[in-house]
Amino acid sequence: MDTHELDGRRTSSYLCRHEVRYHGRVGVVACADCGCLEFYGARGPLDPAEGVAALFGNFDLVGKVPAIAAPADHVLAYRPPLGKRAALDVLPAGCWLRVHDELWLASDRQVLLLATPNRLMVDNLTRGA
Ligand SMILES: [Zn+2]
Asked: Least C-beta-crowded within 10 Å: which of 25, 45, 58, 60?
């Protein structure tokens, strides 16, 4: 089947199921199959960076971790505050999802990982932590 790979790639974006999962008032579509990541607020689609801040803004910075199998050089780990781990359940575990050009996120159900190639971004993300 020479066409199998091509067909798989072409069809994957509409064969995978995209359901919105809600945490509080923030809805998330996060798909491990096609890498889709979208955020929704009460008034419609949210800017992805806003969505990340709304869902995970209260997480505590743990520190930098080695960028193993990460899409960018700088990887930061964040721990949910007590009782807030459910925010991570809106994400598929163990895969990187692109937030925007310079930010990816991943979850292993225990911590949130943010990856960026941009040092300035790291400084912004760690400021106030
Ligand atoms: Zn998908």
From this structure: 25
